[in-house]
Amino acid sequence: MELSGQYRIPAERERVFAALCDPVVLQRCIPVLEEIDRLSPTDYAARVRATVGPLKARFSGRLRLAPEDAPRFYILYAEGSGGLAGAVKGEARITLEEVGGHTHLTYTLAAALGGAVGRLAVKLVQAKADRVIGGFFERFTAEVLES
């Protein structure tokens, strides 16, 4: 499954990048995130609850931030397991460009889904992912503007 998109966030790039690396901000902004703990400056443990169609599951996993050219570009790697629900492995490539005091964020996401979640119709999973991403950016933008 592949997704891509772009958002304009009315804040400076360094501020946006710092917020994207802050587990407290992420906890408040990611609708499906139950728990996130920073293990190191680039590694996190997380637990997510997901409902896709008839499937309800909790996934536990790890996130790793690879700051290739931070705060301009970085890669986020994710792996998670939801027991009988299956497994998820993905990579997000994020570019942050500062344009006139605002940040233009572009992302591409590639994910491999296994087990029950992988057997669900791709369009159903993509529709859910689009809603979660949209909810995240709405909350994230408000969070960045308040800080």
Characterization of this structure:
- The protein is α+β, with helices and mostly antiparallel strands and 147 residues long.
- It has one domain (2-146): Alpha-D-Glucose-1,6-Bisphosphate, Chain A, domain 4 (2-Layer Sandwich).
- The protein contains four helices and seven strands.
- A seven-stranded antiparallel β-sheet has the order 1-7-6-5-4-3-2.
- It starts with a strand and ends with a helix.
Sheet/helix structural class:
alpha+beta
CATH T-level fold name:
Alpha-D-Glucose-1,6-Bisphosphate, Chain A, domain 4
Cα gyration radius (Å): 15 Å
Strand runs, count:
7
**What is the CATH-assigned architecture?**
2-Layer Sandwich
How big a fraction of the residues is strand?
over 45%
Can you tell me the number of structural domains? 1
C-alpha geometry: globular
State the share of residues found in helices, binned by percent.
25-40%
In DSSP terms (H or I, runs of 4 or more residues), the helix count works out at 4
Strand order of the largest sheet: 1-7-6-5-4-3-2
CATH superfamily: START domain
**What's the rounded overall pLDDT mean?**
89
The CATH class: Alpha Beta
Organism: Azospirillum rugosum
InterPro entries: CO_DH_gsu (IPR010419), START-like_dom_sf (IPR023393)
Protein name: Carbon monoxide dehydrogenase subunit G
